[in-house]
Amino acid sequence: MSSSQPSVSIVVPVRNEADNIAPLIEEITAALDGRWAYEIIYVNDGSTDATGDRLAAMMKQRGNLRQLRHAKSAGQSAAVRSGVRAARGTIVATLDGDGQNNPAFLPDLIAAVEKGVNVGLAAGQRVGRKDTGFKKFQSRVANKVRNAILKDGTRDTGCGLKAFRREVFLMMPYFDGLHRFLPALMRREGFDIAYVDVIDRPRHSGVSNYGFFDRLWIGIMDLAGVWWLIRRKKPTPEVTEVNA
């Protein structure tokens, strides 16, 4: 694999997903090879299984695969941020490491950002979710509450499949749960959102390792904080440099 400067970085946060490592990497490469110069950054969020070893073995085969490791689990938002900060591509795409997000949709998301005149974020919107009825009910409630307050026009912020401009992501104030408020915060910065329907599927193996309630209920304090940020946003001044 080429080690040249990538234009796209794929960030995958994982915790204890050893059995899902190889199948997902194969799918990512099948979707992207020959289309962009890209790198894959796995953020190993304090895994206690063989996730690190599996990644190390794969790295010997793929020169564009990188592994970052958190000494202790810091959560999905922190893992995404670590990956974005380390990314070398101008466009970053994310997906969950459990296999439920199909990498076949990555090209559509990346292209939507790359070709969009003012698109800061392309967000996957799940169709045919492979969760229990209770989980889907909780997500519907959470999305309706968030949308009613923030008016971000997004029916599904919990989908891990997203693509965005790295520099814009790093401009945003960081907090735990940031990745679930990206549409609202992108609009706050004056960027448009592109939406791509994606087909959900069952995870390859194992069980969910990230916060059950964090995934399903919007934190009241976070919601209030993002609402405050949007309300306090001033128009971005038009700046020109005056030369002598």
Automatic annotation (TrEMBL):
Official protein name in the record: Glycosyltransferase family 2 protein
Keywords for the protein's UniProt record, in alphabetical order: Cell membrane, Glycosyltransferase, Lipopolysaccharide biosynthesis, Membrane, Transferase, Transmembrane, Transmembrane helix
Domain of life: Bacteria
Pfam families attached to this UniProt entry: Glycos_transf_2
Alphabetical GO biological process terms: lipopolysaccharide biosynthetic process
Coiled-coil region list: none
All residue ranges annotated as the Glycosyltransferase 2-like domain in the record: 9-169
Organism for this UniProt entry: Bradyrhizobium zhengyangense
This protein's GO CC annotations: plasma membrane
UniProt cross-references to InterPro entries, sorted A to Z: Glyco_trans_2-like (IPR001173), Glycosyltransferase_2 (IPR050256), Nucleotide-diphossugar_trans (IPR029044)
UniProt GO molecular function: undecaprenyl-phosphate 4-deoxy-4-formamido-L-arabinose transferase activity
